[in-house]
Amino acid sequence: MARTHILVIDQGTTSTRSIVFDGEARRVAIAQREFQQHYPEPGRVEHDPEDIWRDVLATAREALEASGIAAADVAGIGITNQRETAVVWDRASGLPIHRAIVWQDRRTADRCHELRTDGVEDLVRERTGLLVDPYFSATKIAWMLDNVSGARARAERGELAFGTIDSFLLWRLTGGAVHATDVTNASRTMLFDIHRHCWDAELCRLLRVPEAMLPSVHDNAHVYGTTAADLFGAAIPVAGMAGDQQAALFGQACFAPGTAKSTYGTGCFILLNTGDQAATSANRLLTTPAYRIDGRTTYALEGSIFVAGAAVKWLRDGIGVITHASQTDDLATRVPDSHGVYMVPAFAGLGAPHWDAEARGAIFGLTLGAGAAHLARAALESVAFQTMDLIRAMAEDGSGRLAMLRVDGGMAANDWLCRFLADMIDAPVERPADLETTARGAAFHAGLATGVWSGLDELERLWSRERCFEPSMAAETRDRLAAGWHDAVRRTLSGNR
Ligand SMILES: Nc1ncnc2c1ncn2[C@@H]1O[C@H](COP(=O)(O)OP(=O)(O)O)[C@@H](O)[C@H]1O
Ligand SMILES: O=P(O)(O)OC[C@H](O)CO
């Protein structure tokens, strides 16, 4: 019997999901686990790679069991992951030498400042499409090599391996046989030349990362290796890998230049397909590979927002204003406006277009009339305002007016947010029938590599829309709200650090 199902491992910032898709890309089963975040000091965020591995195995086995599909009927595994998060492990034992340093971690802000002062930024922009920021992996890797005793010498001798989460999982899934990554994850390290498609020796030297510890880099749809037989009862090919934001673009079937998606998870990442052109931005957006299939690269412009759902999580876990994230929908609907309250959620600095690692969160306009509903509304509004700024930046960079924006991620379940977003970007917001588009994108890659699906036309037909939110706000109201937001951002950037 032909193998027709795909198992996807979606390893996000706050949770790990495994999902089984059938040959029509329909979700058959899902298993999910939240895992522990470590905040050892202000500005530092770490994950224990062993927690991640434990949850990957547990959810993959659970999803397989719930689907009723035998491992032998799975055509391939797709992996998609939180990007940039850096793991360094010992090749002989397979054990990490330090907890993973997460993409939100700001500990290397000073080092990045130094690099900018040394004039490295232009080279980084030109070769990698990125800016010098602690967000990306390179300075996190160097930090581990400099702060774990003996690590740098071991890395230089080739005893240590670096990987983003995809690469670490591939290593574990294949029983230590394969050390590889895909082009989208490689491109987030600040070490990968996105035009020549290889690790850049000069950047490795400047950023002090020995090339001996880097994985080999492949297409997104590619058979990377097979799982160790004892893990699932049958060997399964690992046939697709992609960073979660690029996977979401693919899962949203944004295959044509000019199409865009925005994913609302912990952070929010807007990617605009620019075709085979690695378009550059005059507004501090990133240039990044969207996918590479059969050796052909499609690029995207990316706007990276560090805090989206995390602001809602903070309302829940940080200050206890809500007990469940979805309550923000109802709370925001209950009040006619935010009562002049603006939240600038710079909890982890500000990403595009400001790139200010030192900025800290702020709430403006509090009066005695402000309550929980206004705070919840201000948090949701801040996510839409940030999206608006980045879509305007893309338009200024020459993308033209956006015809529509496809949304996904856990927070896109929020109807109020989607309506407000359509108003603020003044374009329709389309929500797909299944919000698990990140996993779908990874499934598409694994399905292409294993022959479950034949090409992009077929994948486009598998996408379906659940709802479209049309803009209806008066331009004058939009301009007034946007002006209030920009004023709050200005004040945050000038004084709050
Ligand atoms: N209905 C909702 N309204 C607002 N925020 C939500 C809603 N549901 C989930 N969220 C937020 O979305 C995030 C979870 O989305 P998810 O895509 O699972 O994130 P990740 O992949 O980064 O772990 C959480 O930060 C949560 O606060
Ligand atoms: O975990 P998410 O979905 O917020 O995604 C994290 C991004 O990949 C970070 O670049």
Name the features.
about 500 residues; alpha+beta; Nucleotidyltransferase, domain 5; 2 domains; seven-stranded mixed β-sheet; six-stranded mixed β-sheet; 23 strands; globular; binds adenosine-5'-diphosphate; binds SN-glycerol-3-phosphate; Glycerol kinase; transferase; nucleotide-binding; ATP-binding
Quick rundown:
The chain contains 17 helices and 23 strands.
Beta-strand percent range: 15-25%
Count of runs of 4 or more consecutive helical residues: 17
Query: Tally of extended strands?
Result: 23
Output the structural class.
Answer: alpha+beta
**Helix content estimate:** 25-40%
**Poorly predicted regions:** none
Biggest sheet record: 7 strands, mixed
Mean pLDDT: 95
C-alpha Rg (nearest Å): 22 Å
The CATH class of the largest domain is Alpha Beta
Give the distinct bound molecules: adenosine-5'-diphosphate, SN-glycerol-3-phosphate
CATH architecture of the largest domain: 2-Layer Sandwich
Cα end-to-end separation: 61 Å
Using the coordinates shown, work out and report the CATH topology of the largest domain: Nucleotidyltransferase, domain 5
The structural domain count equals: 2
Morphology call: globular
Query: What's the CATH H-level superfamily name of the largest domain?
Result: ATPase, nucleotide binding domain
Reading side by side through the largest sheet, how are the strands ordered? 17-18-16-15-21-22-23
